[in-house]
Amino acid sequence: MKKLERNLGLSSVISISIASMLGSGIFVLPGLAFEVTGPYVWVSYLLAGLCVLPAALSKSELATAMPASGGTYIYIERTFGPMAGTIAGLGLWISLLLKAAFALMGFGAYLGAISAGFDLKNFALILTAIITILNIVGVGKVSGLLIAVVLLSTIGLTVLNIGTLSTAQVITGIPFSFSHMDSILLAAGLVFISYAGVTKVAAIAEEIKTPEKNLPRGILLSLLIVTLLYCITTLALAKYLPIEQLKNNLRPIYTLAFEFGGKGFGMIMAILAILTMTSMANAGLLAASRFPFAMSRDYLIPRLFGHLDRRFLTPVWSILASGLVVACAIYFLNIAKIAKLASAFILTIYMIENIAVIALRETHIQWYKPTYKSPLYPYVQIFGILSTLYLLVMMKDLAVIGLVSISVPGILIYLFYAKGRVSRKGVLGIRGKRTDLVNEALFPAPAASEKLSLDQDANVVVALIGNERSPEMLIDMGTTLAGGEHIEVAHLTEAPEQTDLNDFTDEDPKLRSLRRRVIAMAIEKSTPINFDPIVTHDLSKSIFEIGQRLHCNWLFMEWKGRLRDTFTTQSPVAWLRSHLNCHLAIFRDNGVRYMRKIMVLIDQNSNDVTLIQAAQQIAESHKAEITFIYLIDKDLTIEETSQVEKYIRLISDDMTVRTTGHIIKYNDKVDTIETLTIEYDLLVFNSNKKHRWFHVFGTEDDQIMANASCSVLGIHTGSTN
Question: Which of 89, 122, 124, 118 is nearest to 103 (CA)?
C-alpha cells in the first residue's frame, strides 16, 4: 500500500492550523458578535478560546498516539468502534466542507469593497476549482502558499491593531459589570466557530515530520497566536469605532482599516481578507479530504476514496469528492445557516475527543502510548466536556437539528455498507461486556520460528502484557502454585484493530532476552515452562482463550492497582474477573524479593480455602511464616470472638509452616490494611469485589492493591477444570 509523504514541518503545521481558523471568524463574525454583547466581544473570544483549549490538549495527545491521516475519525473509530467512526468521519467531512464553502462565500462583503462587478457565486466556484487542483498537486505545495498568506494576514492585522490601539480613545460603550456576563457567554457560543479549525491539522498527521513533537506544538502555538490576534483585533475595533458602526457589519476589518488609513489601506486589508478566507477554505478542504481517505482504508466506504495518485501521492478521488461537495454547497445551499448547523456537530466532536482521552487512558489499552500527555488530566478533559456541553445547550434546537441532519447519513452508510465488511469493536467494545467469546486463531509474532505450543494443557498460565516490574518474579509465583506441573508463559502484544498483524515481522530484542531468562528458570526449577509471544487485536479475549484452551487452574497477571485520588472508568482486570472460569491471581510487585512474613486476610467464607492453600504453597517455597488477619468493623461478643479464634486455630492446625492469627477492629479498612502491611513482605487476600460504574476512584480491592506497603497477591476465585 502506498503511503503519504511526510513533508510538513512545524511551520507548515502552524500555518495550516492558523489558516483553518483565521478567516471569516475574524473578518466577518465580529460584526455579528458586537450585536450580541456590545464592546466586550474580546472577552467572548477569550472565553471561547479557553473552552477550545481542552480539546486542543486532548487532540494533541491523541494525535501523538495515533499519527495517521484521518485525525479525529481515527481516534473515535478506534475508541468507540466503526459505527461511531463512520458517523464522526462523514460528519466531520461534511462539517468542514460546509465551513470551507462558508469561507469562500464569506468574502462577498470584502469583494464588494473592491469592485461591484464580480459575480460572487461564480468567483467562489472558480476558487474552489483552484484549491481542489492545488490539493491534488500536493500538500507540500499547498503549505507553502498557506505560510505566505498566513504571514501576510497576521502582519496586516498586527499593523492595524498597533496603529488603532495607539491612537484610540476610551472604550466605546458602558463600563463592564457582571450583568454583561449573559450576553458575553452567548457571544462566546457564537464565536466558538472561529476556533473550529484549530485541530484540523491532525487529519494530515501522516504527512507531518516527527508528528509526536510537531503536532502538539503546532496545535497549541497556533491556538495561542490566534486567540491573541482575535482578542486584540476585537479590542481595537471596540476602541476605535462606535458600536453602532460595528453591529451587524459583515466587513468590520475593512471598515476599521478605511477609517484609520483611508481607502488605500482599506483595499489592502480587503484583499488580505479575501486571500485569508480562501486559504481557510483551502485548509478545510485539505483536512476534510483525509477523512474519506482514512475511512476507505478501514472498509467503511468504497476503496476508491483510498486510492493515491501515482504521480502526486495524494488521495485524488477523496479530494475531488470534497471539492464537488464544496461547489454544490456554494451553488445550492444557504451557506451561513448550514455552517451554523455544522458547528453543532463540531462542538460535539470536541466533547467526544475529551471523552476519548479518558476512555483510552482508563481502559489501559496497551498500544495507547502518546508521546505527549495532556496536563492536569482528567480535570482539563472534564472542563472541556462540561463547557462544550453548555455551549450546545445554548444552541437549543439548532444543536439538535445539526446533530441529527449530519449523523443520520453516517448511520445509514454504516448499516447498509460498512456493517457487513468490518468486525472491529473499538476499545470500549473490547473492554466492555462481551458475548462473542468463541475460539479464534491467536497470532504468534512471525519472527518466532517455533509454532505456538498451545495444544498442551497447563496448570498455570502467566500472562505478560509488557508493563511488569519483574517478569521473573511473576513467573516464580506461578511456578510455586503449579507444583511442578506445566506452565504457559504468554507474552502478549496488543495492536490496534486496524493494524495488520503481519506487520509484526521482527521479534523485539527485549523479548528474545526474556525468552532466554525463562528457559533458564525452567532448568533451575525443574518445571516445564513454555514461552509464547502473541500479537493480538484483543488482549482480554486472547488471555481468556488461552486459559480456556489450556484448561488452566490459575491465571497470573501483574497490575499495579488504582493509585489514590486518580480517576478511572473501569478496572483493567474487571472483565477477566467476570469471564474466567479459573482462579485469577493479580500480583502487584512492590520490589520485595525476600518473602519471610506473609499476611493473609480471611473472612470465614468458602473462598478462604483457595486463599489459604495458595498462601501455604508460597510460604513453603520461601520458608516464610503466615499471619492470619480477621478484620472487623464492630465490637464482637465473647461468643463471636471465640468462634473466630476457633476458626483461626482450625486452619492453622493444617498448615505446614509457622502461623499466628489476630482479630483487628478498623474504622477505615484500606488505611488499616496499609498500616498493617508495613510489617509484612506479602499480602494475600480475596479480590472478588465487582467493579461498578460508580467506582470512579476504584473499588476497595483496587485501593488495597495500590496502597499496600508490601507486595500484594489478590485472588479471584473461579470454578476450575
Answer: 124
Domains 432-549 and 559-721 share a fold: yes
CA distances 508 to 448, 451, 474, 493, Å, are 10, 17, 20, 11
CA-nearest of 383, 324, 15, 5 to 200 is 15
CATH number of 559-721: 3.40.50.620
Q: What are phi and psi of 174, to 5 degrees?
A: -80, 155
pLDDT (tens digit, 9 = 90+) per residue, 424-448? 888 877 766 555 554 444 444 443 3
Other CB atoms within a 10 A radius of the CB of residue 373 amount to: 15
> Measured between alpha carbons, how far is 97 from 330 in angstroms, rounded to an integer?
10
Residue 190 gets the label, from left (phi > 0), alpha (psi -120 to 50) or beta, of alpha
Q: What's the Cα-to-Cα distance from 468 to each of 491, 492, 495, 576, rounded to whole Å?
A: 11, 12, 18, 18
Instruction: Report residue 653: phi and psi, to 5°.
Output: -65, -30
- For CA atoms 654, 655, 659, 661, give the dihedral sign: negative
Backbone angles phi, psi at 625, to 5 degrees: -105, 155
Strands 554-558 and 583-588: parallel
Q: Are 215 and 64 in contact (CB under 8 A)?
A: yes
- Three-class secondary structure of residue 158 per DSSP: helix
Q: Show the DSSP H helices in 463-589 as ranges.
A: 471-482, 509-525, 539-550, 574-579
Residues 6+ apart with CB under 8 A from 160: 233, 236, 253, 256, 257, 260, 269
Overall residue count recorded for the chain in this entry: 721
Domain locations in the chain? 10-421, 432-549, 559-721
- Residue 491 per-residue DSSP state: E
CA distances to 78, 149, 199, 282, 396 from 15, rounded to whole Å, are 28, 9, 12, 12, 34
Q: End-to-end CA distance of the chain, in Å?
A: 46
Q: Tell me which residue of 710, 690, 417 sits closest to 592, measured CA to CA.
A: 710
Instruction: Report the C-alpha gap between 412 and 414 in whole angstroms.
Output: 5
Please state, in angstroms and rounded to a whole number, the distance separating the CA atoms of residues 707 and 57.
30
The position carrying cell 502582519 is 155
User: Computed over its alpha carbons, how large is the radius of gyration of the chain?
Assistant: 31
- The predicted model scores a pTM of 0.73
**C-alpha cell of 506?**
521482527
Pairing of strands 529-536, 554-558: unpaired
Q: Which CA distances in Å does 301 have to 326, 417, 537?
A: 20, 7, 22
> What CA–CA distance (Å, rounded) separates 118 from 108?
9
Fold classification of 432-549 is Rossmann fold (3.40.50)
E strands within 597-638? 597-602, 625-632
d(C-alpha 147, C-alpha 155), whole Å: 12
Q: What is the pLDDT of residues 236-251, one digit of tens each?
A: 898 888 888 888 887 8
Report d(CA 376, CA 282) in Å as an integer. Answer: 34
**CA–CA gap between residue 717 and residue 586 (Å, rounded):** 11
Closest CA to 204 of 1, 458, 484, 13: 13
Topology classification of domain 10-421? Amino acid/polyamine transporter I (1.20.1740)
The three cell numbers of residue 289 are 479530504
Inter-residue contact 451 to 444 (CB < 8 Å): yes
Write out pLDDT tens, residues 33-81: 888 888 888 888 998 888 888 988 898 888 888 877 667 888 888 888 8
Single-letter residue type at 683: L
Q: What are residue 493's DSSP bridge partners?
A: 535
- Residue 685 has φ and ψ, to the nearest 5°, of -150, 160
